[in-house]
Design goal:
The complex is a heterodimer.
Chain A (H helix, E strand, L loop, with lengths): L1 H28 L4 H8 L7 H11 L5 H13 L13 H36 L4 H15 L2 H16 L14 H35 L2 H8 L4 H31 L1 H6 L5 H10 L3 H29 L7
Helix pairs in contact in A: 1-13, 5-6, 5-8, 5-10, 6-8, 7-8, 8-10, 9-10, 10-13, 12-13
Chain B lengths: L4 H27 L1 H18 L1 H4 L31 H37 L1 H15 L3 H12 L3 H28 L2 H8 L4 H9 L4 H24 L11 H4 L3 H4 L6 H28 L7
Helix pairs in contact in B: 1-2, 2-4, 2-13, 4-5, 4-7, 4-10, 4-13, 5-7, 6-7, 7-10, 8-9, 10-13
The chains are: A mainly alpha, B mainly alpha.
């Protein structure tokens, strides 16, 4: 087991290196750099070339690409993300609060998605090919089809019209003021959770259908066990693993992929930060964000695999 | 003159497939009512997109400053926006943008992805390992982040948006198609083709690709809805199709949010159009998958 874990951990390194190289090169291909972006927003396009070059030198943008890359890599190896090129503040400080927001939103949305997906999936499997099954499918696919930015706009609109209520504008951590925090994040979490329950529901339904056809379920029924007991003790235990996998994979993407939802609900999360960083050509910040999201994805992936190996004795790790 | 056996055969050859085709459609409608609903929505969107210039009551770009933000009435069924443009016409023309970008991106993504997948499975060994590691890297990016990066490089506009949306679809399609192609590679007819001395290209394109068409088709329909949604998201962020082109995501941006309280029709109807179209594609794709993929067949 220890060997397996070590092997999986080591296998992450080349992927992360690949991600780092890819984003590093992609950013350099985007036209313009942070110095140009800054002077353009200040409106003076005729800034002297000398001044701009000085600025570039200060940021290390005049070094050859491989020097920039190795410099960044050696920082990463020490978990030092460096300074943001746009604000010159340490990137860790820039990201901290936004990461807390995005993480909490992703956790809440995943919980909501599981709370919808598991019961709905079981229901659809039990009533396969009846109107119940069809309604569940329509409900979940409708969620998948509804753009989160539209659903968000409608939610805000409804609250404004019916309750004259406007969500708070700023993010307060859960431990500071739970009420304000939840008032801000509950609605986006609902919108996102509903949207992402579709895949989980479909998975729950199909694994449940598979498990219900197993011999041991028939045996349990023949013994005269309660249906409820069979479902929770025998069927669910075996059917739920793939569902949890799907939901946790999505969780990783929710961390950095909620650009649009954040925009609608006016949240300062990682997604919006990413868009800002790209439009400012803030190389260091963008790179840090991408590495953060990619490693979150890899770590979640890794943990799912380990959980599988631990929970399902049929899976043998090599 | 008596019909020669030749012409009878010809007749049959034409008649039988047509009857089977009809039968297949009927079978689909009866067995998968939801899929049929999806198919109707897909057809509706496609028809609107093709006939936009005949169906739309107004020019989607013409502004009417005398009728700005007018609520839905007999003249403007779904109201007008802050420039006095007819919302219904813009939605109808928007279906054209959505279909173009959606079809373009999913076809592009699926073809490149499936080619990579088949090549990876066919050659195996080091090629396979290398390609899979590269795909792993792409997998670690959230879809929208990858699309945004491509838009940042290429710039906005419909053509670039197609490329941006196709990019995150390539690795996902490649992975699914590779899995299917792995089993096809072991088939005797591939051995036979190799024994006959055919080149790699011919074996890949003529012998393997046609036999993994089912997963490719499934992925393409699944991508279609997602591509439309992504296009809407990018346009909503202002990083997709640009004004004044009629696009659903664009219609939900700016003024639609600003005037959401006083002119809710601007925010409601374009979103409804996106949802219905994507809903149709997803329902249809779902049923198609159930019908084509025997492993997922639950009946």
């Amino acid at each position: 087991m220890a060997f397996y874990i070590l092997k999986r951990l080591l296998a992450m390194i080349p992927t992360l290196l690949g991600v780092a190289t890819l984003i590093f090169l992609l950013l350099r291909v985007i036209p313009g750099d942070v110095v140009e972006a800054r002077y353009l927003t200040q409106g003076s396009q005729f800034q002297s070339q000398d001044l701009m070059n000085q600025e570039r030198h200060k940021l290390g943008l005049d070094k050859p690409l491989w020097r920039q890359f190795t410099g960044w890599m050696s920082g990463l190896a020490r978990f030092d993300f460096g300074l943001s090129m746009w604000t010159s503040a340490p990137i860790t400080d820039e990201i901290k609060l936004r990461f807390a927001l995005s993480l909490q939103l992703a956790i809440m949305a995943s919980i909501i998605a599981s709370c919808l997906a598991i019961p709905l999936g079981i229901l659809a499997a039990m009533k396969q090919d009846t109107w119940v099954d069809y309604s569940v499918r329509v409900f979940t696919i409708a969620g998948l089809a509804t753009p989160s930015f539209w659903l968000g706009t409608l939610m805000i609109l409804a609250m404004l019209i019916f309750f004259k209520w406007v969500p708070p504008m700023t993010f307060t951590p859960l431990w500071v003021s739970p009420k304000e925090n939840l008032a801000l994040l509950l609605w986006p979490a609902l919108a996102v959770g509903y949207r992402y329950c579709a895949v989980g529901t479909r998975m729950m339904r199909s694994t449940m259908l598979e498990v219900l056809r197993e011999d041991y379920i028939r045996t349990a029924r023949a013994k005269g066990l309660w249906l409820k007991l069979i479902l929770t003790r025998h069927a669910l235990k075996n059917a739920i693993l793939p569902v949890l996998t799907v939901i946790s994979m999505e969780f990783a993407f929710l961390l950095g992929g909620l650009v649009v939802t954040e925009q609608v609900f006016n949240l300062n999360g990682l997604g919006m930060l990413f868009v800002e960083a790209i439009s400012h050509r803030d190389y260091t910040l963008t790179q840090a964000l991408v590495m953060l999201v990619a490693s979150a994805f890899l770590v979640v992936n890794f943990m799912v695999d380990i959980a599988y190996a631990v929970l399902d004795p049929r899976i043998r790790y090599r | 003159m008596a019909a020669s056996p030749h012409t009878v055969e010809q007749l049959n050859r034409e008649a039988i497939p047509r009857a089977r085709w009809l039968q297949a459609v009927l079978h689909f409608v009866v067995n998968r009512p939801l899929g049929a609903v999806g198919a109707v929505l897909v057809l509706l969107t496609a028809t609107l997109a093709l006939t936009a210039n005949f169906v739309a009551p107004y020019d989607p770009l013409s502004t009417d400053y005398g009728a700005m933000l007018s609520p839905p009435d007999a003249h403007h069924w779904l109201g007008t926006d802050s420039f006095g443009r007819d919302v219904l016409s813009r939605i109808i023309y928007g279906s054209r943008t959505a279909m173009t970008v959606g079809l373009g991106a999913s076809l592009l993504g699926a073809s490149i992805g499936s080619l990579i997948g088949v090549v990876s499975a066919y050659f195996g060994g080091r090629v396979d390992l290398l390609l899979q590691r590269v795909l792993d890297v792409f997998f670690a990016f959230p879809v929208i982040v990858l699309a945004l990066a491509v838009v940042a490089i290429l710039g906005t506009g419909a053509g670039n948006v197609i490329l941006a949306i196709a990019t995150p679809m390539v690795p996902r399609c490649a992975r699914v198609v590779r899995a299917a192609a792995l089993s096809v590679r072991e088939m005797p007819y591939v051995d036979a083709a190799r024994a006959s001395g055919f080149g790699h290209r011919r074996i890949i394109l003529r012998h393997m690709l046609p036999n993994v068409m089912a997963p490719i088709l499934i992925m393409t329909t699944a991508f279609l809805g997602e591509a439309i949604l992504l296009e809407a998201s990018l346009s909503f962020l202002g990083l997709g199709v640009q004004e004044p082109t009629a696009a659903w995501g664009l219609m939900l941006r700016g003024a639609a949010v600003e005037f959401a309280e006083t002119a809710p029709w601007m925010a409601i109807f374009p979103g409804l159009a996106i949802s219905l179209a994507v809903f149709g594609f997803n329902l249809f794709g779902d049923s198609l998958r159930d019908a084509l993929d025997p492993r997922l067949r639950t009946q």
